[in-house]
Structure formats: C-alpha cells, structure tokens
Fold:
Amino acid sequence: MAFQKITEQSSNYRHLEKMTVGELLTNINREDQLVPAAVEKAIPQIEKLAEVAADKMLMGGRMFYIGAGTSGRLGIVDASECPPTYGVPYGLVIGIIAGGEKAITSAVEFAEDDRGQGWKDLLEYNVSDKDVVIGIAASGTTPYVIGALDECRKLGIITGSISCNPDSPVSAAADFPIEVVVGPEFVTGSTRMKSGTAQKLVLNMISTTVMIHLGRVEDNKMVNMQLTNDKLVDRGTRMLMERIKLADYEKAKDLLLLHGSVKKAADSLAG
Structure:
C-alpha cells in the first residue's frame, strides 16, 4: 500500500465555526469513539513491541520514547508516570522531545525537522543495544524521529514506532512499527486530537504491560507505588490492611510509612 497521509486529510465536518457548543462537543466525541477500535486493530503490533521491550528491560535495559510536539510530550508524560506508579527508578523509562525541555510547554520552531538531532539527544543518555527506542510521530514523517531510529538500527538497537498513518516512513525505520489509523481529525490536521489520544492509549498499554512483566504489580495492585501524597498513603494503607489482614488502620499506616511501599511492608512481616 502506498503511503497515505490520512492525518492531513480534510475533516469530515465543515463550517465548524457555525456549530453550537453542543454540536461541537457531540461531533468531537463521535470522532473520539473511533479511537479505541483503531487501537484494538493494532494490538498484534503492540504485543510484539511490548514483549521485546519487557525482555530487554528484564535484562537491565531501558525504554526510550522520542518524539516532537504533542507526540514528544505524550512520551514524556508516560515516562514520568512510571516511577511514582510502579516504584521504578527515574531513568528506566525516558522521554525525549525535539527542542529539549522548553518544547514541553512551548513550540520550538523547526526542531522536528533536524534529522540528526534525535540521535544526538539519545547519545546524551549513552543509549546502547541493551535498550529499546520507540519513536512517536502521528504523521509518521518527522525527520527528528526517523533519523534517530535509523542510527539506532545501524548499531543493533531495537526500535519501535507509533504513528497514525499506514505504511509511513517512521514505520519503515522501526523494527516493530505500530500504526493506529484513526482517520481525518475533527479540526483538519490537528493531530493533538484523535491521533494524540490513540498514541496515549498505546503508550499506556506498553508501559503498563512492561511494568507488570517486571513484577511491579501483584494481583491488580500497585504495590510498589511511591507514597507522594496523602491520597496514595491512604490507598497504600488500605492495600496493606487487606494484604496482611490487619484491621488497625493506624498500625498499617505506620508500617507502610516505615518501609516506604506496600510490598516492602508486607515482605517485612513475611520474612
């Protein structure tokens, strides 16, 4: 199939400025409902990448996300949530965005067009063939991402990609491409909408699956979560009470805070 830039095709809706607030919201929601079905079709591709990422990380490797604009920000969000959610070290999952930290909150002009900078940014982290690098690009054409993946493959570094166009250049640059085709955006070309939602869902699936395979979840509980606020301390306390069959909330809370996680607190009693 020839490359089609579906993400740039005209919206299925016209004259958005004439719609009422209710009509706008209803039509945006109607389009959003197409996203989970598109993700479901890509599960076989997602499975392959998640399996190899988990295998690499079980052997001591890291997982990198690299992207530009919305795609890069989504990677940073997912990477930053892994340590507090699963208690893994910062630096195990790393998000890199074209244009650096400034680009997280502000657009950096033409940063995504530098084909060589993505690889330079990866080298700052001493990326190696122990790691997995996942390029995120809704259009599938971002030079910053494609250039980084090309250099990775030359050195035998496993690569994946997440895009929203079929048979895209970024897919060709990846060992394990994922293509979630969600159709034209409600606002023509605004890939922060359906495409961004699809990418976030895929990132959730990959990182959650990997963390479960790394043993960071027991049953269905985040037993290694960091206790970074009162809500999580309360949640952890109740999880510990259930796990060790302790009815005293304050005793369970003290034990949790002493050891720093549900798992460590429970293991201290088992030992």
